[in-house]
TrEMBL record:
Protein name: Wall-associated receptor kinase 2-like
Main localization (coarse): membrane
Organism: Capsicum annuum
Binding site for ATP: K454
Biological process according to GO: cell surface receptor signaling pathway
UniProt catalytic activity: L-threonyl-[protein] + ATP = O-phospho-L-threonyl-[protein] + ADP + H(+); L-seryl-[protein] + ATP = O-phospho-L-seryl-[protein] + ADP + H(+)
An annotated Gene Ontology molecular function: calcium ion binding
Residue ranges occupied by any EGF-like domain in the UniProt entry: 300-342
Membrane topology: Single-pass type I membrane protein
Stretches that traverse the bilayer: 354-377
GO cellular component: plasma membrane
Keyword ATP-binding attached: yes
Record's function text: Serine/threonine-protein kinase that may function as a signaling receptor of extracellular matrix component. Binding to pectin may have significance in the control of cell expansion, morphogenesis and development.
Length: 754
């Protein structure tokens, strides 16, 4: 390989790593539940805290993000006025509180305020970080409240306080709360309420420059409070002061909590439990990092990259990351245990001279190439990205596709663009929800309406489906397929942006009484022909061929002119060029699932033919593919349809909204026969999608010709045979809705499980 080529490869790989880490980086160290907002402004909100009932562990961990504050939104505890500035997973909460003040002028109270603090049962004032402080020249301050004794659920009350005096405003030391002008004391460990009372010792006779006398008192994070003599007259210019609170996940001790594994909050593997003054809290074990309250929240840290103070490998040693730990080994030519490495004696070194020279030469070359390629990027970052990159190897393929020939078709949106478009993923904008994630309606700046699909991240499969869908859709350019406009790579949750389709799904169209009544046979046939056309295209015109795998009426969207738009390619498979069938885990939706595929796990194009057959029957009968409310023999639509046709009862099960006249009867019979063939137990006996599409299009053409001339039914039949596939001209748009998990359904007999 020419060196130039090597360099190019290195550059490409490095770029891919960066791309990939942008796309999926945050999935590695998740701190929130899937689909939950991760922050309020720049304040991170890790689970168990959350902004909605579903996102938080329970009510005590609810926080409210109020966006009406400028420039940044503010976060509050529950619906209280306690403003949060930082949530730490090590069990602390930094909050801001108003302080008490009491001002007099000429012996008359002019300005007084005494906010009190009451915390919920899982919170307490941190004993080591906070102090009770009073400021004033004639002040005594008393704080009363309650505290929990260590490891007990009994609350006791406390009262304490201090007195601050001074002779003049120049008394006291700046930066030192010494008792002159400022006094401080501790409040008991486990305190969960505080009520401050301020009084004067000498009847408010001491006045400052404005004939005013003020006293202040507050509980405050000691490290942030730096006393200044100015405060004696002007502290009230400050609005709020910081306090550090401790939070616990439960009131029990670790020992008690572990007994009930459903309630035990340390959900992640590799997590530890710690007792504290309120109850217990969780942490990730040494060597792991992340959120112990989420399943799989604790992830292995790469100690070789994040070298902590206790990093024990010697300078020359080779560090290798292991699960939960790391090892140090001395390089060849060195002896030692890795924490110390010594060069071997010189004789052996000379002996190995040639090898060393070659090794060094190669190493130098590699270093030169690498440092050239790494320009502009921190080596450390790249290493970390590389790790993630390989973990999620599907991204390579995605990137190749996106930057390949078809790259320009797909726009890469920024996170802000999509946040603006969806009003920060407002609940009101949700238009669909399912196993894959959530679909939001969004308005882009250029007034385009889009559907934004936000996948769930927690599951690896979802990431694969996301990649899959991008790859598949980037290859398809068909007017009856939902158009992928772009994706967003900056968020931890992969986002796909589609054109918005405004008329719901085929399923809604068929199963909503009002909508179904205006859904004529002509339109139904057209929808069927269009869908068949798409599948035929996917199976034979696309390269490599694509099997959709989840054809169902819910995945066929309708625009205003009832043009069909096939959506949801999350489960689709590209068929390798030299194979006609692939072995996969069975995936799909009951009611539509090919019984042969279900039994053999061999996925072929004929599985889509079967699913399409079910959709066709749905179009004819207006019944649901699977309906547990019906008598047992009618539950599976496919099975019921076949038995009805075999008994010549076709016209009894047709949708009432389909008007049957003499001409229709022949046509309906033809379509029913076609559906019957699609639903054949043996995949080989089913027609190809190409044949299906051609037949349906012929039927459609026939209908159209009826509109012009009045022909009799013999001519119709002969016309039918001679018709080739034809193109249909309709307009499009789209959006995406829902998927049913196969796991949600009950056993049932399917046609063909004979
Ligand atoms: C959030 O931003 C504000 C100002 O923009 C800054 O003062 C504060 O330190 C930031 N907080 C965090 C947790 O980054
Ligand atoms: C947000 O704060 C504003 C101003 O303080 C207040 O009027 C509003 O009610 C708050 N909104 C919520 C949802 O708490
Ligand atoms: C919010 O406040 C109302 C009354 O002001 C109270 O009933 C409710 O429980 C509070 N909700 C939370 C989560 O604290
Ligand atoms: C208080 O906060 C510190 C860290 O700021 C923490 O180490 C300590 O455990 C907390 N709790 C108590 C009761 O001191
Ligand atoms: C906490 O209270 C419960 C009843 O409310 C009692 O059974 C339990 O013994 C108490 N625990 C401690 C440590 O006092
Ligand atoms: C308090 O502030 C002064 C400057 O205003 C600074 O010199 C001093 O170091 C500060 N003290 C602390 C404890 O932060
Ligand atoms: C706080 O203390 C004052 C005076 O002792 C009392 O009147 C007030 O009710 C107390 N407030 C609370 C919430 O305990
Ligand atoms: C404070 O003033 C009140 C009346 O204004 C008086 O009765 C009282 O004795 C004074 N107390 C002191 C300590 O000066
Ligand atoms: C004195 O009081 C007046 C009115 O209350 C206020 O506007 C002014 O800022 C005060 N001056 C000082 C130095 O506190
Ligand atoms: C303070 O009070 C004295 C006497 O009551 C008065 O003469 C003086 O003007 C006052 N000063 C201010 C700044 O209000
Ligand atoms: C365990 O915790 C769950 C959830 O809090 C609760 O429903 C269940 O009753 C508890 N089981 C026992 C044995 O305490
Ligand atoms: C990591 O490995 C070292 C050396 O093998 C051992 O001393 C240490 O206890 C291990 N640490 C953890 C957290 O397992």
């Amino acid at each position: 390989m020419a060196p130039n080529y090597v360099m190019m490869m290195v550059v490409v790989v490095v770029n891919l790593m960066i791309f990939f880490s942008l796309c999926f980086g945050a999935t590695v160290n998740m701190v929130v539940k899937a689909g939950c907002s991760e922050s309020c402004g720049n304040i991170s909100v890790p689970f168990p805290f959350g902004m909605t009932q579903d996102c938080s562990l329970h009510r005590q961990f609810l926080v409210t993000c109020n966006y009406s504050f400028q420039p940044a939104p503010k976060l509050f505890l529950g619906n209280s006025t306690i403003e949060i500035t930082k949530i730490s997973l090590t069990g602390q909460l930094s909050v801001l509180r108003l302080f008490s003040r009491d001002c007099y002028r000429d012996g008359i109270r002019t300005n007084s305020n005494s906010p009190w603090l009451t915390l919920s049962s899982l919170l307490s004032v941190n004993y080591t970080a906070n102090k009770f402080i009073a400021v004033g020249c004639d002040t005594y301050a008393i704080v009363r409240g309650h505290y929990r004794r260590h490891n007990s659920n009994i609350s006791e009350s406390y009262v304490t306080g201090c007195m601050s005096m001074c002779n003049s405003m120049d008394d006291g030391d700046n930066n030192l709360c010494s008792g002159v002008g400022c006094c401080k004391t501790s409040i008991p460990e486990g305190a969960w309420s505080a009520n401050i009372t301020l009084s004067s010792y000498n009847n408010y006779t001491y006045v400052t420059d404005n004939n005013t006398s003020c006293s202040y008192a507050f509980v405050v994070e000691e490290a942030t409070f730096n006393f200044s003599k100015n405060y004696l007259s002007r502290l009230h210019n400050k609005k709020k002061l910081p306090i550090v609170l401790d939070w616990s996940i439960g009131k029990e001790t670790c020992e008690v909590a572990k007994r009930n594994s459903t309630a035990y909050a340390c959900k992640s593997n590799n997590s530890d439990c710690h007792d504290n003054s309120i109850g217990y809290r969780c942490s990730c074990m040494q060597g792991y990092d992340g959120n112990p309250y989420l399943e799989d929240g604790c992830q292995d840290t790469d100690e070789c990259i994040d070298r902590k103070e206790d990093y024990r490998c010697a300078k020359d040693a080779i560090c290798t990351n292991t699960e939960g730990n790391y090892t140090c080994t001395c390089p060849p030519d060195f002896t030692g245990d890795g924490t110390e490495c010594h060069r071997d004696n010189p004789q052996r070194k000379i002996h190995n001279n040639v090898v060393t020279a070659v090794t060094v030469g190669v190493a130098l070359l590699v270093i030169i190439i690498c440092s050239w390629a790494y320009t502009g990027f921190q080596r450390k970052k790249i290493l970390m990205m590389k790790k993630k990159f390989f973990k999620e190897n599907g991204g390579l393929v995605l990137q190749q596709r996106l930057t390949g020939e078809e790259g320009n078709r797909i726009k890469i949106f920024t996170a802000e663009e999509l946040e603006m478009a969806t009003n920060d993923f407002d609940k009101d904008r949700v238009v669909g929800q399912g196993g894959f994630g959530t679909v939001y309606k969004g308005y882009l700046k250029d007034n385009r309406i889009v559907a934004i699909k936000k996948s769930k991240v927690i599951d690896r499969n979802q990431i694969e489906q996301f990649i899959n869908e991008v790859i598949v859709l980037s290859q398809i350019n068909h007017r009856n397929v939902v158009k992928l406009l772009g994706c967003c790579l900056e968020t931890e949750v992969p986002l796909l942006v589609y054109e918005f389709i405004n008329n719901g799904t085929l399923s809604e169209q068929l199963h909503d009484k009002v909508k179904a009544s205006t859904f004529s046979l002509d339109i139904r046939l057209r929808v069927a022909a269009e869908t068949a056309g798409v599948l035929s295209y996917l199976h034979s015109a696309a390269y490599p061929p694509i099997i959709h795998r989840d054809i169902k009426s819910v995945n066929i969207l309708m625009d205003k002119s009832y043009t069909a738009k096939v959506s949801d390619f999350g489960a689709s498979r590209l068929v390798p060029a030299d194979q006609t069938e692939i072995s996969t885990l069975v995936q799909g939706t009951l009611g539509y699932l090919d019984p042969e595929y279900l039994q053999t796990n061999q996925l072929t194009e004929k599985s889509d033919v079967y699913s399409f057959g079910v959709v066709l029957v749905e179009l004819l009968t207006g019944r649901k593919a699977l309906c547990f409310e019906r008598p047992e023999k009618e539950r599976s639509l496919a099975q019921y349809f076949i038995s009805s046709v075999e008994k010549d009862n076709l016209f009894d099960i047709l949708d009432d909204n389909i008007v049957c006249d003499e001409r229709n009867r022949v046509q309906l019979k033809n379509v029913a026969k076609l559906a019957q063939r699609c639903l054949h137990v043996k995949g080989d006996a089913r027609p190809t999608m190409k044949e299906v599409a051609a037949e349906l299009e012929a039927e459609l053409r026939l209908k159209q010709s009826w509109a012009q001339t009045d022909q009799n039914s013999e001519e119709v039949e002969s016309l039918l045979q001679g018709t080739e596939s034809l193109e249909l001209g309709y307009k499009y748009s789209e959006h995406s809705i829902n998927i049913d998990s196969i796991a949600n359904h009950i056993n049932l007999t399917l046609p063909g499980a004979r």
